[in-house]
Amino acid sequence: MTGNEIESNCLLKDSDSKEISVIQNKDDNDGTLDNHKNGSAVDILQPRKGFWGRAWEVDIKTYIGLTLMLIFCPIAPLYFYIACDGYGGDLLGPFWGNSTSNVTAGQQFLDNIPRWSWTALGIYSAWITSQLLISFLPDVLHYVVPFYVGGVQEGAVTPAGKVNKYNINGLQAWILTHSLWFANAYGFGLFPPTIIFDYFGPMLWVVNVVGYLLAIFAYVKGRFFPTDPDDCKFSGNFLYDFSMGIEFNPRIGKWFDFKIFFNGRPGIVAWTLINLSFAAYQVEAYGYVSNSMVLLNVLHAIYVVDFFWNETWYLKTLDICHDHFGWYLAWGDCVWLPYMYTLQGLYLAYNPVDLHIAVLIVIAVLGVVGYYVFRSANHQKDHFRKERERSKIWGKSPDFIKCWYLSSDGVRHDSALLTSGWWGVCRHANYTGDLLGCLAYCLCCGFGHLLPYFYFIYMLILLVNRIYRDEHRCQNKYGHFWTEYTQTVRYRLIPGIY
Ligand code: NDP
């Protein structure tokens, strides 16, 4: 029997004895690329050996998309900053110009472009150095905080069949960094708490330089001295390999992991610090902090602390299990994340919105509900993957599809796809919750301008794109098991609609 022939129909049983019929095919372990190039029916049926992680195939659409991304992504944060700083958050302001000025709109725009600043470079260098030092500290928090999972933890199985170890200490780093921030703001006074706001424009140049240098370094490292050659991918297209990365988990030494550090530290730790600096600016400029700014700070802080509390879970997310480390993650973590995720705070710094108490409560409830759906969906999957039949999903034994996949070393790994709880409602309920939260952040800014809503639009595009990337990956990884899952849980994001 050849590897692509269907061997049998079989019935699988889950713990609630619900029978799930699947077509089982047998793989002869030669699941090479050649077997799968033609997009035949066999492609859909057979889990592919080690065939997940970022895409292998690059076509003209990918090429055009990447070129647009490389050109427009760096412009977007600059444009939004200028729109806030020079035009009070009016997205079209740079085109029209300020009518009170007697210079042309074009000249005004040029005048509003932030300038390079060596001080900003100094601040950023101090910031990255401090985060590097903090990241090497062993985690003590998991010894003293009940239920917190930190310290040395294992990541997911990579396509090459490896399991990396990580020093999980993000929550400790977040607490330490913010304690130092408050100690400085209300004690030492080495620098003003508005420092990030004050240098936000010039810092944009610095982070872009760092982001691009990091992406170039990641490309060169991937080509010439990869941490793990078996987990590298080459598409044969320079632009694609540069943008989407070659190495899966680049590291220096045993513990410095590029993905974990750059996403977590200059990215997510900075998020809440930037928000605090915007709030400090409101005090300086207007003498008070608006209730919208307080709510935004709180909702963002919940999301950020949740991320670090669940940093071990993050090791099993797409960033770690799917994406390779290239420009997309390197530049994204250095520039896009700190600048675009804090856009509402920047907008509120220039436009303090005082929300009616009833509106404030509605937005807060939306934010908390969104967070609840996001967290409980993620928790259900995590809990189920650890406990399987023993887990309780909404108080009941789980429904699931038993499945397996092959890593590129030919080893078969058993797995399971949950079909009850949130994962029975739709295939990406965690994204639905995330999007509700994002909408709440944007609503904090009122309806004066469209600019702060860009974040919601962006997240919608990001997560829908992620759905397609993830499902493509899962189809390759699980073959007919994934098809069975999509037939059991028919909707992706909103039951009955999409
Ligand atoms: P998921 O956490 O949804 O992970 C997808 C993976 O989960 C799949 O590849 C598959 O992996 C596994 N899986 C899928 N369906 C099932 C199922 N029914 N049962 C068991 N396992 C399943 O996606 P992400 O990693 O993209 O996102 C994680 C969280 O991060 C989300 O809540 C998302 O909203 C958030 N996020 C936030 C972003 C932001 O910028 N704020 C950006 C991206 C994500 P496997 O190979 O293990 O089977």
Account of the 3D structure:
- By secondary structure, the protein is mainly alpha-helical.
- The protein contains 21 helices and eight strands.
- The strands form four sheets. It has a two-stranded antiparallel sheet. It has a two-stranded antiparallel sheet with strand order 3-4.
- The protein is globular.
- It binds NADPH dihydro-nicotinamide-adenine-dinucleotide phosphate (NDP).
- NADPH dihydro-nicotinamide-adenine-dinucleotide phosphate binds at residues 317-318, 321, 374, 378, 381, 415, 417-418, 423, 428, 430-431, 434, 466, 470, 473-474, 477.
What are the key terms here?
498 residues, mainly alpha, two-stranded antiparallel sheet, 21 helices, binds NADPH dihydro-nicotinamide-adenine-dinucleotide phosphate
Write the layout of secondary structure elements.
Blueprint: E1 6-13, E2 19-25, H1 41-45, H2 60-87, H3 93-96, H4 105-112, H5 118-135, H6 141-144, E3 151-157, E4 163-168, H7 170-188, H8 195-198, H9 200-224, H10 238-244, E5 251-252, E6 256-257, H11 258-286, H12 291-309, H13 311-314, H14 318-321, H15 327-340, H16 343-350, H17 357-387, E7 400-406, E8 412-418, H18 422-425, H19 429-443, H20 454-478, H21 480-488
Helix pairs in contact: 2-9, 2-16, 7-11, 9-15, 11-12, 11-15, 11-16, 12-16, 12-17, 17-19, 19-20, 20-21
Bound molecules: NADPH dihydro-nicotinamide-adenine-dinucleotide phosphate.
